[in-house]
Amino acid sequence: MRPPVYVLIAAASWFCLDTIRADTFTVTTTNALGPGSLYEAINSANAHPGADTISFNIPGSDLQTIPVGDTGLPEITDPLTIDGYTQPGAKANTLSTADNAIILIRIDGSPTGSVDHDGLIISAGDSVVRGLALTGFPDSLGLTGEALFDGTAIRLQGKGDNSIEGNFIGLSSNVSPNSGNSTGVAVGSSNNTVGGTLPAQRNVISNNNTGISIDPDASGNVIEGNYLGVDPSGAAALGNAIGVRINGTTTRLGGLVPEAANVISGNFYGIFFGSSGNANVVEGNLIGTDAGGTENFGNSMVGVCIYGSQNRIGGLAANAGNRIWFNPTGVEVANFDTDHPAVGNSLLSNSIFADLFKIDLGMDGATRNDLEDADIGPNNLQNFPVITSTEFLQKRTVVKGGFNSTPSSKFTLQFFTEGLNPSDSALQATKSVTTDANGIAYFDFNLRALPPDVVVNATATDPVGNTSEFRTDFAVQVANISTRAHVGTGNNVLIGGFVVHRPPGDTDHKKKVLLRALGPSLQVNGVSLPGRLADPTLELHNVKGALIASNDNWRSDQETAITATGAAPKNDKESALIANLADGNYTVQVRGANSGTGLGVVEVYDLEPLDPVNEQSGRLVNISTRGLVRPGNDALIGGLIVRGDDGENVLLRAIGPDLTAEQVPNALSNPTLELRDASGTLLAANDDWRSDQEEEITATGIAPNDDRDSAILYSLPPGNYTAIVRGNPESTGVALVEIYDLNSGH
Fold first, then answer.
1. What is the pLDDT of residues 216-226, one digit of tens each?
2. How far, in Å, CA of 737 to CA of 496, rounded?
3. pLDDT tens across 432-471, in order?
4. Are the C-beta atoms of residues 172 and 63 closer than 8 Å to each other?
5. Which of 211, 126, 123 is nearest to 167 (CA)?
6. β-bridge pairing 80-83 and 52-56
7. Cα–Cα distance between 413 and 78 in angstroms, integer?
8. Phi, psi of 39 (to 5 degrees)
9. Per-residue model confidence (pLDDT) at position 219
10. Contacts 24+ apart (CB under 8 A), 658-663
11. pLDDT band for position 508 (cuts 50, 70, 90)
C-alpha cells in the first residue's frame, strides 16, 4: 500500500531542509592538511550547500598556529562563517577603547619554500571571518625587486556582503610585532564591512605593508571601528606602510557615531586615495593620535593623501569631522597625472594640527591666491578666504575679511581656531557667501567669544566640492597702481610718484616694474571714453628729477619684453617701458604728444611676486599721482591691485590744500575721497579727514596737514580697487591721490 500523498510531500520537504541546513565543521588540529584541518573544513563547507560555520577545538591553551604558507587554503565558494572565538579560552574584545580580545587561532602564511599563497580567499559572499590572527603573507619579489606576488591575509572577491570583524591582522595576541602581511584585507567585491561599531567587531590591522586595500571595481564598502597602525592597547604604534588604500568608490571610512571611528595612526601614509578612488567618505576618525585621541602617533608622511576626485573628508553633519593631528601634512591633494585630475574633494569640519601644512594642494607647499581664481590643479587650487581683522570681544568674536574667487558663485566658508596646542584646532562656524560678478565677496561674521591667544583661519569650498588650503604664508603686495585723470599742459600734466623699498641690508637687488601711459584704448563697459588722450608719452625721473627713461609708442623699444609681461598696451600709440629700479623715489610723467590734452592713465606694475621667505624683491610702498580734477568723468581716479595671502593695510589720501604750501597753482580747495571695489561698490568715503578715523590715521604718522584733505584707513583683501577724488562741491583743481602700504612701514 502506497503512503498518502501528504506523507510523500512532507518527506520530500524534510529531505530538502536536511540538505541545505547550516552545518558546523570543527577544526581539531593545526596540521595544514588532513582530517580535522582548516583546509579540510573549508573543502567540506564548500561541498555543503548553504551557509555553514567553521569552529575550532584544537587541544592546548596557548596560541595555535596553522601554517598554510606551503599549501594555501581552498577558496571559499559557499557562504561561510569562520569563528576563531569558538576555540576554548578565546574571548572577543569588550573595551570601548583598547582591545582586550584573546585570539588563540593564528593562520600563518610564512612559506618554507618558494610557493606563495593568499590566506582566506572569499568569493562566495555573505561570509564572516572573526576571531583570527592572520600573519606572514608577504610580497614575493623577483631578482630585480619587482613584486611577483602580493601576499594577502584576507582577499574578498566575487560576491560581496562579507563581514571581517574582531581579528588581529598582521600581528597575534601574544607577540605583537609578528610577521606582517603585504596586504591585510584586499577588498575586490562590494558592500563588505570591515570592523563594526561594537567592541567585539574591532579589527586590529597593523604591521602590514597595506592594512586595507579597496580595489578599483569595489564599491559600497564600510570600514569602521578598527585600529590601523597601532597595537591592541591603542597606546603604542605598530604601523603599516599605508593604513588604508582606496582605489574604489563609495567607501565609507568611519561614521557619525563615536563607535564607528577608526584609529589610523603610526603608519607612513594614513589614508591613501589612488587616482580611481572617487566619491568616498571619511568621517569621524582619529588620524594621527592614539586611541584616546590625544597622544602623538602621527602618520610619518601624510594623514590623508588624495589622488582621486569627489571624495569627502569630514562633512557638515554633526560629528562628521575627523581629528587629523600630528602628521607632517594633514591632508594632501595631488594630481596623479593630467588624465586623472584630483578635483571636487571636500575637506570639511576637520580638526587639523600638522607640523608643516594642514592642507596642501599640489604637494608643493603653500599655494598663493590668484585674482578670480583662474588657475587649475588639484581641487582647482581653490582660493582661501582672507581675514583682515579679528576682534575679540567679551561676548563674541568678530571676523572681517574678503574672498576672491569664481564670479557669481556660492561658497561655504569654515572658520577654525589655531593655537599652540592640538586642541586649539577646532571648527568655530560655517558660513556661506556669494561672490559678485567680479568674483568678490566680503564678510563680517560674529563667532562665539574666543580666547585672544588663538588665531582664526578659514577655508573655502566651492559649489562642486573643491576645498581650499588654509592661509599659511602672510605675504601681500600692492602689485599695480593706475591713475586716470585729465592730462593738460604745463603744471597740469599727469604725474605719478612711487617709492621702491627693500629690506635692510639688500643693496644689490633691483625692483622690476612696468610703466604704462594709456589714452586711445580707454573704455568703460566696452564704450570708448570721449575726450581721451590721443597720443600719450611717458617719462621716468629719479628723486632728483633726472630723466631715467622715456617712451612714445611702446613698440619702438622693448617690444618683446613688454609683450612677455602679458600687459602690453592695446594701442600702438600708447607708451610703456620696463625698468629695474634701486631703492628710492621715482616719478612718471604723462604728456600728450604735440601738447595734446585729454583723459589719460598712468600705471605702475610690480613684475615680481612677493617672496614670503626672502622679501628681496622689495615692494611698492607709496604711490601718489598728481592730476587735474574736473567735474563729471574727469575726476582723479586711482586704481590699485592687491595680490597675495593677507589683507593689505593701506592709507588712502586725497590732498588738495596741502599743495598750496608747495606752491602748486590751482590746488583743489576741498577734495573728497571714495574707495570702491571692482564692482563699483562703495567701501568707504571721507570728506575732511578728522571727521572719521582721526585717532587711527594720526597714529600712522602720515595724517594730512590740512583738515580739508581727505583720508581713509582700510585693510583690503586681495582684489582690484579704485580711489576717486572729486571736489566738494563739484570744482576744478590740481589734487594728489596717494596710497601708502602700511604693511611695510611705508
1. 999 999 999 99
2. 9
3. 999 999 899 999 999 999 999 999 999 999 999 999 999 8
4. yes
5. 211
6. parallel
7. 51
8. -55, -50
9. 98
10. 658/704, 658/705, 658/706, 658/709, 658/736, 659/626, 659/734, 659/735, 659/736, 661/705
11. low
